[in-house]
């Protein structure tokens, strides 16, 4: 949590300094060691900060297209229904073996649009705010847990690549069945890591929402199977042996959808 908050403070302080907003800059400096306690919600696996920003008010960076939300002097907790939904999703994620992943890599949750079941759900994480995730949802904690795992997985992999000093810029591209386009090694391996983890979760939690998760698992098993050959070749770009084998193992486990194998992300 502290690491995720630090990036909000760094980003907020930089924006305040550039715009000449002395009051906001002073606030970030004053609260850099003592975070406002009313931001936090207690969950079974640790604290979370839940926000429900209006998607129309999300910030845009001049150097990236992905919108984002910053914690700052005007931040208030999300409504109780939202915090209860996230706390329940954290609990479910932990029940099926993904508690550490969510707690460490998605402690700040920004719920965006509540959609109907069956509608497309948008979600993302950005490298400038590790530990923060942005998600649409359907009001169901199990489905939210699945999507939290997906975005936490992206944050985990970014951290792991940086820690291992691995740069995935080999210039190669691979067919991504999730985007129906060719993607560079970085994006391809991210997809082949995040989706398998959600598949493992779906296989374990399928009894909670059988129709949704069984359909999800079948669809993504077919997509993942189509990446098998390319995934083996793309992994050559991961020069750290332990990380490479972890990515390979999770991909293989997801193809078998084995519910008894613990996640290899701690």
UniProtKB/TrEMBL annotation:
Domain of life (superkingdom): Bacteria
Protein name: HEXXH motif domain-containing protein
Lineage: Bacteria, Bacillati, Actinomycetota, Actinomycetes, Mycobacteriales
